[in-house]
Specification:
The structure is a homotetramer of 267-residue chains. With 267 residues, chain A is α/β, with parallel strands linked by helices. Chain A folds into two domains: 158 residues, Class I glutamine amidotransferase (GATase) domain (Rossmann fold, 3-Layer(aba) Sandwich); 32 residues, no CATH class. The first copy, chain A, is globular and about 70 Å long. In chain A, 58% of the residues are buried. Chains B and D meet through strand 5, strand 6 and strand 7 of B and strand 5, strand 6 and strand 7 of D. Strand 10 of chain B pairs antiparallel with strand 6 of chain C.
């Protein structure tokens, strides 16, 4: 990407207004905490959005200028507008926007719609977690040690009912005897998606440098690359007799694009 | 499965009433043609459903007694009820029902919702197709030769904008110079999905014995197997201190299910 | 498969002769312990083989009559004959034999050659493990609860340097703070492979009913199904002008197999 | 990568000395033709190697300074030294070198050993091919149109007996009625592999700008990225009681690497 990656961090932003512990940890919201970290990097441009903002924080002009959408939601999944979910989903499918689902966003409408999953899991009390790096050569694991310690996180446990991920990058060990697939990628049409488990609202995980670094790596990884050919939002009719036309020299050059074929087949 | 596999074949069933060629090929509908073939097999039980039936052919008592849903739709995708699509999607995700999308169902609401895709492709006039068998050892390819000939099919061409399939089983060669990924599987949560390209309403493909055999194979493959443990439709809380309890002998037996843990951990 | 599945259980079978604890747990070898369990099932036929048997336990007439090969090796990986490894690898690739690698077989020559991996991991002292069932609807998880307890197993820990598996079915939690991808499938050409972690020679894991059930399930899953079309051990030349011949009626029927094309194209 | 990507193009380089048509098309070898194109790019450094060079063109000092190895072989696969194949395979698995197999290298020793496949396919006479771009947003498809024309290529046809690729990017349509999965990626341990079908020795495909561009894109994609943590060539023992040590403050910082744990757990 030649320009900055435009990241919008969407936060339900309610716990941080009502829960004392959450408020103390994230006085301006978890999105602001993550945003403050990300905006240090010259290649990244940050915008914050919240459920209670006008248009639920994502009016068309924001969504259409977002390269990567980070999503944190929990108690108000059901309030998110279905039409907005569909817009998000299609922008991701078209390869115009990456999507990062944090923590309880496993159950959010956009994550479930985009990936195609119910996203159910089991959960339990806050406790010690050790995060393991299963795929150390993956770009999302860049700069991350073989394991790191999270002194306090809400337990998310298997079975996590999701489709087989494209790549499983992180796995969590929990004090109470549980494990979880904590960081993983999915690809849907032209869109890249990353799910990452840490980030309960009453835990300081978004102050953890490894957690933040992984989120930044995921921004770089999910951001759309410049495509050779754009995904479409319709099903075009092709040129009849393509092979014959080419052989007969009716297709100039050796590059053919049936969709635009009548205009000329190459450069 | 100890009992018969209960297959419901859902057909939009409109072309066959209005288009002369379709009517001649499939006087009782494409679903009836496929159903007549499938009901020969003692392990399969067939039910037909159509868009214009009450409850769009799929009232709850039908859906809840369907093990495999076969779907053919084209011109009326938009009429299918969203609430019905959600019910279908969740039944598939829970592993209670397999889903087979035929031909233009690549663009149907249930296929797109279940797989997580826009399902866009390019298309063209009816022509000769040779179907190639890329994965001859797959159960869905059982009894299918290395290739077979379809004298007349609507062109479906790449790029087909779908997620990378779980397994690519069939690929189509077309006279005019195009290719297509014609038969492929997807797995979403506990659900198994098969997409298969042949079946334009004015082509006799559902009279082709190889096409029919592939559909039957796909019924057997997508049908739910008896699971060791059911997928859930919620996120339960687990038992605290699981490892400690087991070590202290508070978990009887060596089998533990945290969800039902208080009742006793095994048999 | 119409006949019994012929399982050969190959064991290095040296620890059980020299280590007192191993000898006490498995007086006739680990292979005999697993074999005794498997031979209860009428659909399975068991044969035992060991490194110090003639032809390293796998003369051609044994290998060619084996449908599923189970492999346990550890201290003598280097002694296994390279020519034998190549024979095993090709039989698996051709779809004639499934392969199950147990415990330290992650570093065995056949596992590494078949999967294409170095198979490196980290390891530690024997300790408590809780095995989690990540994919409860998979046939290999049939009859297995959501989790089960292994009171004593050698620690195998991430990172496990393997290719992304086809399906990750089991994951292990360990007392000391580690996790491991414990049960997973790979598919290579027409061959199905299962890796399963439990089974250190001084631990009673092959007396654990869940471990044994998983091995039995894996036998059924890796066993070759009746293929529609056999994988080949060479690269045949095809028929020229196939499409033209078919269109000209020179290919009888609508079934064509270019390899045997001159003999006649179908039924 | 901060420095240039060091590409070694290995060519069997025999057809071009003995076959008149090959000699005319590639007087200095196919490797030289590809190399001339690649060396235009400032980020790439090219070295040529051939089977009949000393040490089969790949002495240790060359191999250890190669970031991406491109391989073209055909009639002399059997002559390639097994020890060299093992060195190549391990360098790829360790994530130190990408591997690109061209055309008949589907049957080469390194491709088969690295991917874990027999690599068998069917083939036929030289003919017209149309190459389709199935995954236009993949970095290897950057700058490539929806399809392009190859006026003359040796037929490679399905079934291609390989494991399911990580991503299928290109597919070929052939005049005679055949199709082929022509461009695809595999990942094995930390190594990235790309197979690409065009390049029969008597066809001008390595003068085709799209073919060349795809090879260049594949160089960038398969080249090792800077890993956060290196793959190892052994299985180290871990630290006992890791979770307890961390909780007791015996692990400084919140970053732990059990392998180097005694030295100190972070920065």
């Amino acid at each position: 990407m030649d320009r900055k990656i435009r990241v919008t961090i969407w936060d339900e932003f309610r716990h941080e207004k009502t829960n004392e512990k959450a408020k103390a940890l994230y006085p301006d919201g978890m999105h602001a905490c993550i945003g403050k970290y990300l905006e240090q990097f010259p290649e990244i441009e940050v915008r914050l959005a919240a459920l209670d903002d006008p248009d639920q924080g994502l009016p068309d002009e924001v969504l259409q200028n977002t390269d990567v959408l980070i999503w944190w939601g929990h108690m108000a999944h059901g309030e998110v507008n279905d039409a907005l979910v569909t817009k998000i989903q299609r922008r991701v499918y078209m390869g115009k926007m990456g999507f990062i689902a944090l923590h309880s966003a496993h159950h959010s409408k956009p994550f479930r719609a985009i990936v195609g999953t119910m996203g159910n899991l089991t959960w339990g009390r806050e406790q010690k977690e050790i995060m393991w790096n299963l795929l150390p050569t993956h770009p999302i694991a860049e700069g991350i040690p073989q394991s790191f310690y999270i002194p306090e996180e809400e337990l998310y446990a298997e079975p996590f009912f999701i489709p087989q991920p494209s790549e499983l990058i992180f796995g969590g060990w929990y004090e109470d005897g549980y494990i979880f697939r904590s960081g993983m990628t999915f690809i849907r049409d032209a869109g890249r998606i990353f799910y990452f488990q840490p980030g309960h609202e009453t835990c300081p995980s978004y102050h953890n440098p490894h957690v933040l670094r992984i989120i930044k790596n995921a921004v770089l990884w999910t951001a759309p690359s410049a495509p050779g050919y754009e995904y479409r939002d319709h099903c075009p009719h092709v040129v009849d007799n393509l092979a014959e036309r080419i052989a007969a020299g009716k297709a100039k050059g050796n590059m053919v694009d049936p969709v635009f074929a009548e205009i000329g087949y190459g450069k």
